[in-house]
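Minutes, project check-in
Item: structure for the 78-residue chain
Input as provided by the requester:
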Amino acid sequence: MNKPKTGDLVYIIDPVGDEPIMMGIGLVVGETRKHEHAPGVTWKTSTPVLWNGRVEYLDKPSWMLEVLSAAEVSQGNA
């Protein structure tokens, strides 16, 4: 499994069912982070992705993100 990072173009895949279904293409706009899903109950890991004109927070394992095009790494030379 790959780990998408900010700036990556990704396939957004719904893994539920007999076969995974590609739902669309999105742009990762932030880091994957753990957050409290329900206060004091559960934690989830989600990734903010620009998809269909909105930022969606896609959580694992409900969604799979497959990197289509990785972001360029800056070398720091100006």
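Outcome recorded: The mean pLDDT is 86.
No further action items on this chain.
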